[in-house]
C-alpha cells in the first residue's frame, strides 16, 4: 500500500470525466469505446480471463459511471470506511506474511470481477492508502473558477491547486496574463 499514487491518479482522472466538471467537453466516457480508451491510456489491462478493453460493454460504462459518482462522494468527504468499501466490491484486502514472515497487505480481486469492480479495487486501495499516508486534506477541489473538478494531491509538497494543471492551471495563467495586458493599456 506504499505505492498509492497511480491509483489516486486514476481515481482523479475518472472523477474528472464527468460532464459537470469542466466547461465545454461534456461527458468524457459516453460509450464503450471511450471507456476502452480511458483504460488503455492509463495502461490498465483486465486480469487474465477478463474482457479485453475492446470487449467493453454499455453495462461496463454504466457501472463505471456509478463508480465515478461514488468516488466523487468520497473525494467530497474522504473517509477510510468509504475507501475500504470500494475495495470489497471486487475482492478485498488480506493481511498475509511474506517470505520473511513480515505481515504484508495483499490486494486480490475475485475471479469474475468486472471492469468497474477492478477499477473500484485499484482506486479504493489507493485512496485508503492516501488517507493513511497523507490525510484527508489532500482531497481537494480544483482552484480554477470555471472547473468543478476534484483531485487527490499526492505531490511531495502538497501544494497542487488544479485537477489538471496543464489545462486548468494554464487557463488561469492565461486569464491573468490577459488581465494584466488589458490593465497596462
Structure write-up:
The structure is a single chain. By secondary structure, this protein is mostly helical. It has a single domain (5-136), classed as Jann2411-like domain (Jann2411-like fold, Orthogonal Bundle), CATH 1.10.3300. It has helices at 5-15, 32-41, 58-76, 80-88, 115-133, 165-184; strands spanning 91-97, 103-109, 139-141, 150-152. A two-stranded antiparallel sheet has the order 1-2. A hairpin with an 8-residue loop joins strand 3 (139-141) and strand 4 (150-152). Helix 3 (58-76) runs parallel beside helix 5 (115-133) and helix 4 runs antiparallel to helix 5.
* SSE arrangement, N to C: HHHHEEHEEH
CATH topology: Jann2411-like fold
Please state the CA-atom Rg, rounded to the nearest Å. 18 Å
CATH superfamily: Jann2411-like domain
Just name the CATH architecture: Orthogonal Bundle
| Percent in helix | 40-55%
Overall strand count: 4
Give the distance, in angstroms, between the N- and C-terminal Cα atoms: 54 Å
**Unreliably modeled segments:** none
Q: What is the count of distinct domains?
A: 1
Instruction: Work out the oligomeric state of the chains in this entry.
Output: single chain
- Portion of residues in beta strands equals 5-15%
Entry keywords:
185 residues; mainly alpha; Jann2411-like fold; 6 helices; globular
Give a quick summary of the entry:
The protein has 185 residues and is mainly alpha-helical.
Chain-wise SSE layout:
Layout: H1 5-15, H2 32-41, H3 58-76, H4 80-88, E1 91-97, E2 103-109, H5 115-133, E3 139-141, E4 150-152, H6 165-184
Antiparallel strand pairs: 1-2, 3-4
Helix pairs in contact: 1-5, 3-5, 4-5
Amino acid at each position: 500500500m506504499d505505492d498509492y499514487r497511480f491509483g489516486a491518479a486514476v481515481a482523479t482522472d475518472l472523477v474528472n470525466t464527468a460532464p459537470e466538471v469542466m466547461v465545454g467537453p461534456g461527458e468524457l466516457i459516453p460509450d464503450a469505446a471511450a471507456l476502452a480508451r480511458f483504460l488503455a491510456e492509463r495502461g490498465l489491462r483486465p486480469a487474465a480471463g477478463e474482457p479485453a478493453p475492446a470487449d467493453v460493454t454499455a453495462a461496463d460504462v454504466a457501472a463505471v459511471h456509478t463508480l465515478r459518482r461514488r468516488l466523487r462522494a468520497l473525494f467530497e468527504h474522504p473517509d477510510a470506511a468509504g475507501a475500504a468499501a470500494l475495495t470489497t466490491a471486487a475482492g478485498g484486502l488480506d493481511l498475509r506474511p511474506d517470505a520473511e514472515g513480515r505481515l504484508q497487505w495483499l490486494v486480490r480481486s475475485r475471479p469474475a470481477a468486472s471492469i468497474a469492480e477492478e477499477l473500484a479495487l485499484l482506486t479504493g486501495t489507493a485512496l485508503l492508502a492516501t488517507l493513511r499516508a497523507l490525510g484527508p486534506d489532500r482531497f481537494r477541489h480544483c482552484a480554477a473558477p470555471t472547473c468543478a473538478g476534484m483531485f487527490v494531491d499526492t505531490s511531495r509538497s502538497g501544494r497542487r491547486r488544479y485537477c489538471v494543471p496543464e489545462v486548468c492551471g494554464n487557463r488561469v495563467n492565461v486569464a491573468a496574463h490577459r488581465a494584466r495586458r488589458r490593465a497596462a493599456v
